[in-house]
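Q: A reviewer asked whether we had any structural model of the full assembly, not just the individual parts. We don't, so I'm hoping you can provide one. Inputs are below.
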Amino acid sequence: MLEITNLEKRYGRNDPVLKGLNLRVEGSSVVSIVGASGAGKSTMLRCINRLVEPTSGSIKLNGHELVNLRGSELRRARRRIGMVFQGFNLIDRLSVMENVLSGRLGYVSFFQALTRRFPQSDIDRAFSLMERVGIAHYANKRADQLSGGERQRVAVVRALMQEPEILLADEPTASLDPKTSQQIMSLLQTLASEMSLPVLINIHNVTQARMYTDRIVGMRHGQMIFDGAPKEFNQDALDAIYGGIESPEEDGADPEHQTTQEALA
Amino acid sequence: MTPDKTTADVPSVRVWKKPPFIANPWVRYGLMAVTLIYLYWAFSTLPFNWTRIAEGLPRAAQIFGGAFPPSFERGGLLWTGFKESFQIAFLATLLGVFLSVPIAVMAARNVAPLPVYLLGRTIIIISRSFHPVIVAILFVAAVGFGPLAGILTLTLYSIGFVAKLLAEEIEEIDWGQVEAMRSVGAGYLKMLVYGVFPQIMPRQIGLSMYQLDSNLRASAVVGIVGAGGIGGTLMNAFGRYDYDFAFAILLMIIGIILVSEGISGWVRKKVW
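A: Here is a predicted structure for the entire assembly that you could use as a starting point for your response.
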């Protein structure tokens, strides 16, 4: 169970990005977090595995406090939290197998990591997971030779290699084409139920959020303003989350464009 | 110029001239004047002794005359000299490249804390401040004549160059891969081995090849001040007026540099 209480994060002296956020994720549900860019979705996810230091508040995973962990304690906590990134973040020049095995770095010794002598159990786990997502035949290929969807599968397998207690996905489909992104979403959904793993997904695509997740959390200005089942997520909720925010597609309307046009005239 | 005047003077043909590089005429002509005055001053005050230069020219001609045809008679001496130069260059490259990796990590702001970063930068700056010849003179004084001084000199020279460029390469890596390694719970060293080194590897190999090349060249130079290798042989040949032998050495150096340049270029192309 993940329990976030009163989480606050501010960068420097600016306004806080997260303002007293509360979130409880119980059991093995797939939760999508929607919100406009800058709403604090990514910051919240990164606070959980402490890639970003929270300013105050508490984050508990299965009863263990994550905020204020240091050094080896922090690393031991991190290896139980899998993360999938928007840009995949694979080690491009290493093979798919090395990338997958790098998910075990928190468990093996430095010498084992350096010489790639991972325990047989890790290698077995790697092969069975790669077979599960259909990339086992790429084991010795360099990671940068794979297509986007395949690379995200490698990243998912890497995260699962950690034997995580929770999986975080920071816009996992934003760099993929629509069809591949659906495949990845449904893969995350089925893996979550197969491994009874809670999954938190930051996502821009509201349709996919409705389709593939059990619960939608809407964020705006660092606060949670919607929390409910996908079918409760109606037009009102959408307007509350995205409404009144100028999107780059709207041209001419916002003042910046006008000044540019005036300058050009 | 007012528009009226333009139309009156040139009614049909429009004239265009490239605007001067320096718009302000005072600055433009002032700079030219300053340059001319400086040149006059420099040439009139520097002690060029034209009579000595005139006397020296035939002597130079005599040296070049003596150098033809180059003599490869003392091939044994040539061979030992070059062998030593090779040994110096290889060892110094290996040592220098090996040491430059940790120093580069220290000197990369994104993976090193500030005090360590400053220390790393200081090491690089110190090893880059002096030309290898000056360093060689110091090492010859410290450890005596011979190849050890040459190896130490070129190791320092390699560290200065390779570590600096490698540190800049580390500062430009894709940080996402490092974040991914931190997120799986890897410690600092594992993060370096997986998240950083694969990204800088091609650059590292290219730099090592270039440095080997450069050390071969430099090993001939530092030999002149007594740090071992072919440079010493060359110096002795000059000292004993064996210009034909000296010329043979120079030809060999050119040949070896050409070959090593070719090989390193080929390897770098393969790695990229």
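A: Points you may want to mention in the reply: Chain B has a mean pLDDT of 86. The first helix of chain B runs from residue 3 to 9.
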